[in-house]
Design brief:
Blueprint (H helix, E strand, L loop, with lengths): L12 E2 L7 H30 L2 H4 L12 H22 L2 H5 L1 H10 L2 H10 L7 H10 L1 H17 L2 H29 L13 E2 L5 E2 L3 H4 L2 H14 L2 E2 L6 H4 L6 H31 L5 H4 L2 H20 L1 H21 L10 H37 L7 H22 L2 H9 L4 H25 L8
Parallel strand pairs: 1-4
Antiparallel strand pairs: 2-3
Helix pairs in contact: 1-8, 1-9, 1-11, 3-7, 3-8, 3-13, 3-18, 3-19, 5-8, 5-11, 6-7, 8-9, 8-18, 9-15, 9-17, 13-17, 13-18, 13-19, 13-20, 15-16, 15-17, 16-17, 16-20, 17-18
C-alpha cells in the first residue's frame, strides 16, 4: 500500500509512514521523502551561511574603523560555534516533539534576527564589541539547525538509502559556508539594496564597502524558504516522541563513541571553515584570504554526499577508518608548506594540502553518518530479537538513530568554537595541528576496534 493521497500534499501530517517496506516506498513514499529533502537542503544551506558569516566579516572590520585586536576577531569567529553547538543539543530533540515541518519553518525564520541585526550594527563604527559578540552568538541559530534538519530527514528514508540522503542534505547544506564566503566579498562591493541598505563605509585606503550586505543579502531568501518549508514539507506522526523517550541514547556507549568520531570529521570541517580566512592571512599575509577561503568549505561540502554514497557501497566503518589515515597525512602536508624559520613556505602547496584535508572531512562526515543507523539497528535488533523485521521495531530504530544523528552533530559542532580558539591560543598553528593529529589517531583506533576489524562488536 502506498502513501495516502492526502499525505502526498505538502503541509500535512503523515499518519502512515513505512519507508522500510519496499512496496510502500515505491508507491509514493519516495516522492514524499524527496520533496521534503529538497526543501530541507536550501533551508540548511542558509543556516550554514548565517552561522559562518563572521569568518568573512571579521577580516573587513579593521578596515572600516573597528579597533578590535586579533584575539577579539578570533572570538567573533568562534562564538557562533559555541552557541550553535550548545543549541544543537536541544535542537536534536525538537523534531519528534514539534514535527519536522513546523520546526524547519520556525528555525529557518529565526535566522532573520542575526542577519538583520548584523546589517545595522556594522554601519555604526561606535558599535561596541559586546554587541557584535551577541550577534555572533545569535548566528548560532544557523548551526543549531543542522541537528534538527538531519534528524528530520533521517525519518523519511529507509536504512539502505540514509547514507546518500543524509549526505545530500548535509553536503549541499554545508555548501552554505562556501556560498557565503564566495557571495559576501561580491555583495559588499556595491549597494545591492540601494538607499534601503544604508550608506557605504569608506576604508583608510579610500575603498567603498557595504559590509551590511553580509547580513542583509540572506534576508529575502530566508523568508522565502521559511514559507516553502511551512507549506511544502510534512510532519510524520510516527516520529513523535518525548524528550524522555529519546533520552535513552545517553545510556548507549556507541552514541558517545560516534560523538568522538564525528567530532573529528565535522568538527574539523566547520572549525577549519571558520578559521581558514584568518589562517591564510596569518600564514601568507600578502595573499587575499577571501579570494581562496571559500574553496575549502566548497570541496568539503561537495564530497560529503560522495562519502555517504561510497559508505553505502563499501561500508561506513571501512571508509571512515581509511579516511582518518588520509586526514593525518593531509595535516602533515599543510604543516610542511607553512612558512617557518628555515623556509618561506609555499601557498600553492599549502592550499592544495588544505583542499585535500577539507575533502577528507567531507567524506568522513558522510561515512560516519552512514554508520549510525546501521549500528543502532543492530543494537535494537539484538535487544528485541522477537521483533526483527516488524514495523514497530523499525519505528524505534528510526527514532533512536535520528536522536543520535542530532546529538552527535551537536557535540561535533563545538569544533566551530574550539578549532578557531586553539589556533588563536598559546598552542599556535603548528601546536593545534599536532593536537589534531593525536586526536585523529584515537579515532582510527576506536573505528578499527569497534566497527571495522574482523569480528568487530558492531560491524558497520
Amino acid at each position: 500500500m502506498g502513501v495516502n493521497k492526502e499525505d502526498l500534499k505538502g503541509g500535512k501530517l503523515i499518519t502512515d509512514w513505512r519507508p522500510e517496506m519496499e512496496d510502500f516506498w515505491e508507491n509514493g513514499g519516495k516522492q514524499v521523502a524527496s520533496r521534503n529533502l529538497w526543501v530541507s537542503i536550501p533551508a540548511l544551506l542558509l543556516a550554514f551561511a548565517v552561522w559562518m558569516v563572521w569568518s568573512a566579516v571579521i577580516v573587513n572590520l579593521p578596515e572600516i574603523g573597528f579597533g578590535f585586536d586579533e584575539g577579539q576577531l578570533f572570538w567573533l569567529a568562534a562564538l557562533p560555534g559555541l552557541s550553535g553547538a550548545t543549541l544543537r543539543i536541544f535542537y536534536s530533540f525538537m523534531v519528534p516533539i514539534f514535527g519536522g515541518r513546523r520546526w524547519t519553518a520556525i528555525s529557518t525564520a529565526s535566522l532573520l534576527i542575526p542577519a538583520v541585526w548584523m546589517g545595522f550594527a556594522v554601519q555604526n563604527p561606535d558599535t561596541p564589541f559586546s554587541v557584535f559578540a551577541m550577534i555572533a552568538l545569535l548566528c548560532g541559530f544557523g548551526g543549531a539547525n543542522f541537528a534538527s534538519s538531519m534528524s528530520n530527514i533521517s525519518f523519511f528514508y529507509p536504512k539502505d538509502k540514509q547514507g546518500t540522503a543524509l549526505g545530500l542534505n548535509a553536503g549541499l547544506g554545508n555548501l552554505g559556508v562556501s556560498v557565503m564566503q564566495f557571495v559576501v566579498p561580491l555583495v559588499i562591493g556595491f549597494g545591492v539594496f540601494g538607499a534601503l541598505g544604508g550608506a557605504p563605509q569608506v576604508t583608510e585606503a579610500g575603498k567603498t564597502l557595504y559590509l551590511q550586505n553580509a547580513g542583509f543579502i540572506w534576508v529575502p531568501f530566508i523568508a522565502l524558504v521559511s514559507i516553502a518549508a511551512w507549506f511544502l514539507m510534512n510532519d510524520i506522526a510516527s516520529a513523535k516522541a518525548s524528550f524522555k523517550d529519546q533520552a535513552v541514547i545517553f545510556k548507549r556507549k556507541h552514541n558517545w563513541i560516534m560523538c568522538v568520531l564525528y567530532m573529528a570529521t565535522f568538527g574539523s570541517f566547520i572549525g577549519f571553515s571558520a578559521a581558514f580566512p584568518m589562517l591564510i592571512k596569518k600564514g601568507f599575509p600578502d595573499v587575499n584570504a577571501l579570494q581562496f577561503a571559500f574553496l575549502g568549505p566548497l570541496v568539503g561540502a561537495l564530497f560529503r554526499p560522495v562519502g555517504g554514497w561510497i559508505a553505502d557501497k563499501l561500508g561506513g566503518a571501512r571508509v571512515t577508518f581509511w579516511n582518518y589515515v588520509v586526514m593525518i597525512l593531509a595535516v602533515f602536508a599543510v604543516m610542511y608548506f607553512l612558512p617557518s624559520g628555515t623556509s618561506a613556505g609555499s601557498f600553492t602547496g599549502y592550499l592544495i594540502s588544505f583542499m585535500v584535508l577539507f575533502i577528507t572531512t567531507g567524506i568522513g562526515n558522510g561515512s560516519t553518518f552512514r554508520m549510525i543507523p546501521v549500528i543502532f539497528r543492530t543494537v535494537l535488533e539484538r535487544e528485541h530479537p522477537d521483533k526483527v523485521g516488524t514495523e514497530p521495531l523499525f519505528v524505534e530504530i528510526r527514532k533512536e538513530s535520528a536522536a543520535v544523528v542530532g546529538f552527535t552533530s551537536a557535540v561535533a559542532a563545538y569544533g566551530a568554537f574550539f578549532v578557531p580558539k586553539m589556533f588563536g591560543s598559546g598552542l599556535g598553528v603548528n601546536g593545534t595541528f599536532i593536537a589534531l593529529i593525536a586526536y585523529y589517531v584515537v579515532c582510527i583506533v576506536l573505528t578499527w576496534w569497534y566497527y571495522s576489524r574482523k569480528n568487530a562488536e558492531y560491524p558497520s
